[in-house]
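Recap slide: Protein N-acetyltransferase, RimJ/RimL family, sequence and predicted structure.
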Amino acid sequence: MTPPPIEAPGVRLRAFGPDDVADIVAGCSDPLTQRFIDGLPNPYTEADARHWVAESAPAAFTSGGAAYAVTDPATDRLLGTVGLSHPVPARGQAEIGYWVAPWARGRGVATAATRALAEHAFAAGTARLELLTHVENAASQRVALAAGFRPEGVRRRAAPVRGGGRRDLMVWARLADDPPGPAERPLPDLPGGRLTDGVIVLRRLGPRDADQTYLLHTDPAVVQTRVPPVSATRDEVDQRCRGAESQWLVGTAAAMTILDGSSGAFVGNCMLHYDQPASRQAMIGYSLLPGWRGHGYATRAVRLLARWGFDRVGLARLWAGTLPENAASQRVLEKAGFRREGLLRGRLPGTAGDRADSTIFGLLPTDLTD
């Protein structure tokens, strides 16, 4: 039995048909689709698309799930797909998923389709929907947030990778009585994608920063201040850069790259770690490449980061910790208005089972210097 279409603002969800085959092949062959949907055949052929239309999509409905073509209401052209899988009737639960064709991206198609199918599922008695994304798939995570899904954690090595291995999956969920979205974000995007004081620029850390970030976090002076004080591996740096946007979206940390405002050269990294959201407190950290130290760049970065934290995030307090002997970092904090608050003995792990003290600094909105 062919399911009736679901009409929604900007999209129509309907059953797949033979006329969709060419667009299915194009959409499923797209490199971005292939990258994040490991279960797709590669290469994806016309025979695969025809089997989907004739067999796999109808079977989804008979097994308690759903598989809809997402189409343009005006032209009926395929824009993508959205569906329900892994139903657990005893729990009133299912998993929702989607892909969007290259020619339809950036138009809110995935958000509209996900909201429409979620509302349809809830009206039919579903109590909970899960949405799983790759850690690196920030675009899909933005769709989840826009459609009212909230982050719940990471399932370690939950998905097999094409060609071998496994990868983590982030879990997002929406309950039947949750608002349709967008879900609240503790850490908003930077205004215009950047912060600047005219001398330096802060922007979100990303994969393009991996080479310079690796140099930074293997620099001996930076390594001495790491916890524990050991060099970062290339794999750790790559994962950090690829996952930085995801950490930002879930509200854990805002990791940024510091750039020289004139040349655009990489200067270093800084971060706001939202470690105490219940009391609106966060920690900041920063590191600079050797050639950029001693010119006030770290102080400028701390001021920009702090002002954004107070004005845009709504923080009530910032704190930072340094090794007692790190006089240069302490001067940076004091120039930005931080006040020394005390010493936590044995707070930081060392390299051989020993412990190191940490000098704690705090900043209130009224303390911040210009």
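The chain has two domains: 6-175, 191-367.
The longest strand covers residues 78-88.
(End of recap.)
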